Amino acid sequence: MFEVTPEPHDLARVRFIASDMDNTLLDGEGQLPDGVFERVVALSELGVTFAIASGRPLVTLRALFPRLRSQIVLIGDNGGVISNRDEVIYQAELPVADYQRMVRFANGFGDIPTIVSPDTAYLAERDRSNDEVFATFYYDRTYVEDLATVSAVADKFTIYLPGEDSIPRAEADYEPAFGKDFSVVTSGSVWIDITPKDMDKGGAMRHVSELLGIDTADMMAFGDTFNDAAMLETVGFGYIVANATPGMERYARLVAPSNVDHGVLTVMDQVIAAKRAALGVSES
Length: 284
Hints:
By secondary structure, this protein is α/β, with parallel strands linked by helices. It has helices at residues 21-25, 36-45, 58-64, 96-109, 131-137, 166-178, 201-212, 229-234, 263-279; strands spanning 16-19, 49-53, 73-76, 81-84, 87-91, 112-116, 121-124, 141-144, 156-160, 182-187, 191-196, 219-223, 237-241, 254-256.
């Protein structure tokens, strides 16, 4: 566990807050902690936009946040698609020939690949036995006999590694094969994500900065593992949670309490208090 850092003195300048989900915003049971909706509303009233920045597809995020989807920014597929108040404002695209090549490469190792499109996740019929795992991340799933024949619009290619060796496998196999032309990142111990070059959560922060007119220096973000690194480096207030993956301290200067201790909510409260103090607004 990392040691929590003191509250920054300039939180009143924050205009945008993005949070990863798993092991960051979600609690130890994988559930959204109580009070998120109320804090999002309070932040909005103070001119601060809240965002979910996840490796999950947009269709899944919309289903998970029915009360919030029309009020917040949703960043899916590690930055591949961005929705602002339920309107898609950015969509990346992975070339069909390239992700078909990735399927054949993954099949050669006996790995479990997924092609992620805006509306569904394409998986091989042979891998349906893992559907309980996939259902947690992909709200809509389409199983096909030959994944290498899919030719849909897609922005991410993901490999599921139940052996929990994503980091060494990414370094040994997928980075050498695809890292020159694509972004290859790990998400926890069982996922490798391959996306268009520069398509990551950091790129999403830059897109949001441009599209919404918010300086990245006035943005805050929370994460726990390496697919969050670019996002944390991009914003002015980058936080890892205390339970973050070892090595993540290189990418953020601030540490929030752990997800079990609802660290994201703690810092959101600090921002709300700082904004109210700066505006001379009393707590209602």
